[in-house]
Every structure is written in structure tokens, then in C-alpha cells.
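Exercise 3.2. Students should predict the tertiary structure of the chain below and write it as C-alpha cells, then compare their answer with the key that follows.

Predict this chain's 3D structure.
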Amino acid sequence: MDLPPLSQEQLTAVVASAKTPTELYETLSDYESQACLLSMQKGKHAELLSLYYSTYFFSNLLLDKTIEARLTTQRMPQELLQNDSSLQNCLTLLRAVWQRKYEQVYKILRELPWPEALQPIVQSYESHFQEKTLKEVSRAYEAIRPAAAATYLGLDPAAAQQGDPAIMQKFIAYGWTWDQEKGLLHPKPIVDEVPKKDVRLYNELSEVMALIGNRRS
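Answer key:
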């Protein structure tokens, strides 16, 4: 089925109608050839292309496709990338996400100037990043100081260390426990299950690693 022509109105409709991040990503992927053709018209459609590529970039991040997000920046019209503030912000964000600089990620999302049309997807990614990081911390720590946990989640470390009820409630709502006497948060353990369709592959990889280990010993 032919896609409607790419326009700001159509792009807004695509974002609004997408039921999942995957659906958004796939639809925007289908539009990349149209964006490429528009980019060949020098000096035209800059605002539309900026919005399209910025949205497409965030659709990658919402699926944790960090490598694909990086490749997307390489496929963008390079002249536009070098001169457009939104796309430059995307590059800055990508570096922070890639380097796992949590505080910087939140700072970029909250403080850099993002166009009004991008605000919903920027906020969606902030929520996604916070949720993802919360799970990572839950896997990595049995106990953690509130200030450290708050830093990971873009919250106020000083207020968290003082046991701010609003901040503590965010952790408690996720199943964490708060040991006020010891000043420690205890994350809810997360057990990752291997999907059934991946069990055979997982077992095969385990066998290969075991063989490698035996050869080395």
C-alpha cells in the first residue's frame, strides 16, 4: 500500500495514531525513502526533514535500538545535521545514552530546546529511559543509597538522601523497600526469563561456551 506523502501534518498523524513504539518505528522507517528524496531538493523542506529525522531518531531510542539510532544520524542529510539545532541535540543525547551518562541524559532531555512538535516523544523517551534504568538498577543492586538511586533516575539526590516522601514513594511504588534506620533502599529483585522461542538458542550458546571453557582448561 502506497504511503500518503510525507508532510508535517502526516507526520503528526503518524505519531498520534501509533499504538506502540514498534508501530511508530516501522511506519517512520517506511517513510525514509520519501525523506531521502525530499532532502535532494536543496534548501527546501528543512523544517519537515528536521522533524522527521528527529522523530525517527527517538523512535529508535524508544526501542533501545541505540546502534540503529547512530546509523540513522549517519543517513541524515549531513548539511542539515550540521546546521539544525534539533538534530544536533539528538547527537548530544545519543552520546550521553551511548556512554551511559545518566545525569546528562536527563539534563539534555529536560533543558535543551526541543521544538513543541517533538515535546511528546521527548517526554515519552524520558519516561522510557527512567523505567529502563530503574530495572537495570534493580538487577545490579541489593541495596543502594537514596542519593545514588535518585541520580540514576533523574531525581534530586539531596532530597532523596533526606528521605523525601515523594521520592521514596516512587521507589516503593515499584516494589522497593526503604530501610530508614540504615538509610538504604532495597530494590525489588528482577528475574529475567528466557522467552520460549529463545530457549533452544540459549542452550546451544551455553553448550558452545562450555566447550570453549573446557578447551582452555
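Discussion points: Residues 119-140 form the longest helix (22 residues). The chain has two domains: 8-134, 141-216.
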